[in-house]
Design brief:
five-stranded antiparallel sheet, 60% helix, 4 domains, Beta-Lactamase, alpha+beta
Length: 469
């Protein structure tokens, strides 16, 4: 079966509509002929019959069109029939007086549209041949009148076919250029790294590029096109100027910059940029700068403290070794040494923080680390005393690249923090901790939840500060 392009489909339907319109014009003209008596009654009857028969044929063509396997032969038969029908009309109404001669020109134009290049010329030759035949056998004119009329008509038909072919060819080239420009503009719009929403004057979505579909979690633009933006995307429907908005996309909070641009005739477009990664990176850089400053301060303080502490510890050890000390003095000397060692450990932690070592990273079974930390939490007295329920959803074989000791420390701290937040719970709910590990788009996400009071909003910005709890 021959496939039809959208433009060809449109041309064919237009052709069918115009054929029916011309048939109605013939019927109206026949009514006028009959009313004013310019044609013999038997001629009017014959013409009525031919027109009615052609109307039935045209209606049949409309129904057969959808089932036609070869569009080219189907349309050729219609053009041929129309030329024959026009010839019959002219034969009944007189070749030199008939008002239906102009229908030949319509047939030539239709042929030029439906069959580029040779179609119009062939239709013109067929029309000229048939017209010349009925004009020559007409007995009401001299040979000179017949010859002149036939010559001028044939010249007009051929000229019309050449002109129609040229115009149709130019029209097809223009359509092709416009189509290529539309495809290019579509590709440019879809290749933008920003999302784009096109709105008409009523705020109805007319365009959603691929980037916007991905950003906003739209599976198919056909599901939102033609609908008001306030209904489909209420979070950005009232965008004005430049605004950063928090949008939930597939359950994940994203920070989007929306920019509304006004266009002529009340149309507008909304540009969307996902700033989540950029803002997170800026926050990470600020945090690293902050930590670097703390690290430099910690290094200086550690060096200043370490020497006096070493001297105090050494002096206490010498005093403890002196004979004749009382029991109280021995206890105090031991206390000084112990606390000095504790301060020294804190100083070493400060130095490690200011100059973090490069940890060795290996393949680590994250599920094993999590289970070890969870078992350690279960054995703590605080956990048992407060009746905390622990829900665990950790699948097996979760392997990551990292440092096992550091991962264990992070997970332990998270679990202990949750437990401590539940110790003084006052919301009347049974305390619980939920630990989940799941694979998410090539990554492994670990979630530790509890039903405690949560971190106060004013302290959330400090949770990554060193030694803050």
């Amino acid at each position: 079966m021959q496939t039809r392009s959208s433009s060809q489909e449109r041309d064919i339907r237009l052709y069918m509509f115009l054929r029916l319109l011309l048939l109605w014009s013939v019927l109206i003209s026949l009514v006028a002929y009959n009313r004013f008596g310019s044609l013999a009654s038997d001629t009017v009857v014959k013409t009525y019959f031919v027109t009615f028969f052609t109307y039935l044929v045209t209606t049949g063509f409309v129904f057969l069109y959808e089932k036609a396997r070869d569009t080219r032969y189907f349309l050729t038969s219609q053009i041929a029939y129309d030329i024959l029908f026009t010839t019959v009309l002219i034969f009944y109404t007189g070749p030199f007086e008939s008002m239906y001669t102009v229908f030949y020109l319509f047939n030539i134009m239709f042929a030029a549209i439906l069959f580029p290049r040779a179609g119009a010329l062939l239709a013109a030759i067929a029309s000229a041949s048939l017209y010349a035949t009925i004009a020559w056998i007409n007995a009401d004119s001299t040979h000179e009148e017949k010859g002149f009329s036939i010559l001028t008509t044939i010249t007009g038909f051929i000229s019309m076919s050449l002109l129609a072919s040229q115009l149709v060819e130019e029209l097809r080239k223009s359509r092709s250029r416009i189509s290529r420009l539309e495809e290019l503009s579509e590709e440019i719009v879809n290749s933008l790294d920003s999302g784009l929403l096109g709105l008409d004057s009523r705020g109805v979505l007319r365009k959603v590029n691929r980037t916007a579909q991905g950003m906003l979690g739209i599976e198919n633009d056909l599901s939102v096109l033609g609908r008001p933006v306030h209904e489909v995307l209420p979070a950005i429907g009232d965008a004005q100027g430049n605004e950063v908005r928090n949008l939930s996309v597939r359950g994940e909070m994203r920070r989007m910059l929306t920019t509304k641009v006004l266009l002529p005739e009340g149309h507008s477009m909304i540009l969307i940029r996902d700033l989540t990664e950029v803002l997170d990176l800026e926050e990470k850089v600020r945090r690293q700068d902050h930590l670097a400053g703390i690290g430099r301060l910690a290094t200086g303080v550690a060096h200043e403290i370490r020497n006096p502490i070493a001297a105090i510890s050494g002096a206490a050890q010498l005093l403890a070794a002196h004979p004749g000390e009382t029991e109280e003095q021995t206890r105090l000397h031991a206390l000084i040494v112990r606390e000095s060692e504790r301060v020294d450990r804190l100083v070493n932690q400060l130095l490690r923080f200011s100059r973090p070592p490069i940890a060795k990273r290996d393949a680590v079974r994250l599920d094993e680390v999590l289970n070890e930390c969870i078992e350690s939490l279960r054995t703590r007295p605080d956990f048992k005393d407060h009746g905390i329920r622990l829900e665990v959803e950790v699948p097996g074989h979760l392997q990551v690249k990292g440092n096992r000791d550091e991962l264990s420390e992070v997970m332990t701290n998270l679990l202990v923090n949750s437990m401590q937040a539940l110790v003084d719970i006052k919301n009347g709910l049974a305390p619980f901790i939920r630990v989940r590990a799941l694979r998410d788009r090539g990554e492994i996400r670990v979630v530790v939840e509890d039903n405690g009071p949560g971190i106060p909003r004013e302290l959330r910005g400090r949770v990554f500060d060193p030694f803050f709890t």
